[in-house]
Design brief:
This protein has 428 residues and is an alpha/beta fold. The chain folds into 4 domains: 2-116, Methylthiotransferase, N-terminal domain (Rossmann fold, 3-Layer(aba) Sandwich); 128-246, Transcription Regulator spoIIAA, CATH 3.30.750.210; 250-366, Transcription Regulator spoIIAA, CATH 3.30.750; 371-425, Nucleic acid-binding proteins (OB fold (Dihydrolipoamide Acetyltransferase, E2P), Beta Barrel), CATH 2.40.50.140. Helices cover 34% and strands 22% of the residues. It has 13 helices and 19 strands. It has helices spanning 11-26, 48-64, 75-79, 81-84, 101-111, 157-161, 169-181, 205-212, 233-241, 258-263, 270-283, 302-315, 342-365; strands spanning 2-7, 30-31, 38-43, 69-74, 91-92, 115-116, 140-143, 145-146, 165-166, 186-190, 220-223, 248-250, 288-295, 319-324, 371-380, 383-387, 393-396, 405-414, 417-425. The chain has a 6-stranded parallel sheet with strand order 2-1-3-4-5-6, sandwiched between helices. The protein has a 5-stranded mixed beta barrel with strand order 15-16-17-19-18. Strand 15 and strand 16 form a beta hairpin. Helix 12 (302-315) runs parallel beside helix 13 (342-365).
Length: 428
């Protein structure tokens, strides 16, 4: 039978969708997005917009493929299970049992009984998943952690993903080695709260990075996101000594004023954040530091938003991912007074995005006339596209082989891309 997976949201969802795809292919199912008989929608609930888009896509597939077996999973399904139950879904499983997708589908095909499973218990075991290769990606994701214990005032994810839990150290390394043996030269470590990784064997993220540094054939190690509170001395030492760790860290700031950080229940203040960024740049002066910022959180006045702009300018982020605040049921922030109007959120978001574009352009321009190693990802119309280790997008007007490294000289910056010419095959 033919199947198709539609994925919304984060890298964890992308990883879990890839796992389901691999399991189904291994069992003889055929991937076909044009004529699917089975449709899996892996949903996202990070914002109201994500919830609405997830619901919209489920309705779309139900309407346009009425005879297809419809499977829905993920954070939005977990968060709004009762609402999804009304949509004519055949299999609804939230965030657990994705690794059992083959048996769930086969059981449904056998007895045609609707299956609904939403486990709201926060204390869950880590659902071990192991992928052999990413069929459509040059880089490969490895989910090493699930869940979150931070309970930031604006965030519903701890309620839909459960408590922090981690993949066994040996299993994580085994999966990474398998992916590298299958020609993935860049590995992205991901999780809901990746930096909290702590295995049953007592190993933390720095231990995993250290062991990954020894793997022959692995050229780049990327971390999807890490909290500033997890950048301890042990991690900074690994960042200094392990040159396979990419020259890019995504460190969420969320707000540029101490007052709003406190309202958000973040676990640091601005001085601590700034000091840690300074420590990182002392180790790697030209590192790309990207961030997330929420605009319009309750109590954010015009003056406090101006502080966020000034903080962002001072820290010179390479890119800011801007999220207008979205009230979420179950969260503390949704019950706070001093809610910010949608018009103010829109106006402030526009200003912060403008600043992000300026900072991103300034960061890109630092590398004009420099030589950089690029991992080629795609080729289209005799133009090759790839990324540097500091996550800069590069365009080369030459047909190159995907999944190979080349050394290029940067000649120009145009519309979000560095333009380069090949200097030589990289020695990475």
């Amino acid at each position: 039978m033919n199947f198709y997976i539609y994925t919304l949201g984060c890298k964890v969802n992308a990883y879990e969708s890839e796992l389901m795809k691999e399991l189904l292919l291994k069992d003889g199912f055929v991937y076909d997005e044009n004529d699917p008989q089975i449709i899996i929608v892996n949903t996202c609930s990070v914002t109201n917009v994500a919830d609405n888009k997830s619901l919209k896509m489920v309705r779309h597939f139900h309407k346009n493929y009425p005879n297809a077996l419809l499977v829905v999973c993920g954070c939005s399904a977990q968060n709004k299970g009762s609402e999804y139950q009304k949509l004519g879904i055949d299999i609804l499983i939230g965030n657990q049992q994705k690794s059992q997708i083959v048996s769930l589908i086969k059981k449904y095909l056998e007895n045609k009984e609707t299956y609904f499973y939403i486990n709201n218990n926060r204390q869950l075991p880590f659902e071990n998943m192991q992928i052999n290769r990413f069929a459509t990606h040059t880089r490969a994701y490895v989910k090493i952690e699930d869940g979150c214990d931070n309970f930031c005032s604006y965030c519903v994810i701890p309620y839909v993903r459960g408590a922090c839990r981690s993949k066994d150290f040996s299993l994580a390394l085994e999966e990474i080695k398998t992916l590298v043996s299958n020609n993935h030269q860049e590995i992205v470590l991901t999780g809901i709260h990746t930096g909290s990784y702590h295995s049953k064997e007592g190993k933390d993220l720095s231990d995993l990075l250290h062991e990954m540094g020894k793997i022959e054939g692995l050229k780049r190690i990327r971390i999807s996101s890490i909290e500033v509170t997890e950048l301890n001395d042990k991690f900074l030492k690994e960042l200094k000594n392990n040159l396979k760790i990419c020259n890019h860290l995504h460190i969420p700031l969320q707000a540029g004023s101490d007052e709003i950080l406190k309202k958000m229940n973040r676990k640091y203040n601005l001085d601590e954040f700034k000091q840690k960024i300074a420590q990182i740049r002392a180790i790697r002066p030209d590192i790309a530091i990207t961030t997330d910022i929420i605009v319009g959180h309750p109590y954010e006045t015009d003056e406090l938003f101006e502080q966020t702009l000034l903080t962002s300018q001072e820290l010179k982020f390479a890119k800011i991912h801007v999220f207008p605040y979205s009230p979420r049921q179950k969260t503390v922030a949704a019950t706070m007074p001093m809610q910010v109007s949608e018009e103010q959120k829109k106006s402030r978001s526009k200003r912060l995005i403008g600043l992000s574009n300026t900072l991103e352009s300034e960061y890109y321009h630092q590398f004009l006339n420099q030589k950089l190693d690029v991992l080629i990802e795609t080729v289209k119309d005799n133009v090759s596209y790839g990324k540097t280790d500091n996550y800069l997008k590069v365009k080369i007007f030459e047909k190159l082989k995907p999944n190979t490294f080349v050394n290029i000289t940067i000649t120009n910056y145009d519309d979000g891309y560095l333009i380069g010419v090949v200097t030589e095959k990289s020695l990475i």
